[in-house]
Model the fold of this input.
Amino acid sequence: MNFIRTLISFVILSALMGCRTRKQEFIPLDHMTFTNSYDKNKVKISAYVLIANPDADYIKLKTSVIQYVKKRLRDNDYTKKTSVSSINFVFYQKTGNTSYFINHNEENNKLTCNEISHYQEDYIANYNVVKCDGGSAEKLYLFDRNEEIITNSCNKTSLDTKK
Done:
């Protein structure tokens, strides 16, 4: 009888510990990547990403978002294309609402309208990379906080002319 109690306690404890240690996961929604190319020399790309189990600690979440974007920029040729002027990564928490977009595109027609932007309660961040003559500027907008400049290798004169 003691053995059964010990076994049941172990199973319950293991289940509880498993719930606590859910790992944060980034889920790119590549099928929803939007390219705005009204001007073929100033293409703007928006890439959507869900975050499952986002870290509750602001600093850890910020660090993981920055690391994710840096890796995506390294692994992709977005910034190498001369026609691309900016890339905007938009992060949402993976919830029952936003999980729909893992396997579906946004819908905007006469009968239905289901866009990820409708779920503002699940919004986490924007990470914007803008190319300039002297390099690039990277800005993070996390939740409703003010913008934070992550890097800026633009020449001051190229920034002044863009205002």
Notes: The helical segments are 2-20, 58-75, 156-162. The radius of gyration is 20 Å. The chain is about 25% helix and 35% strand.
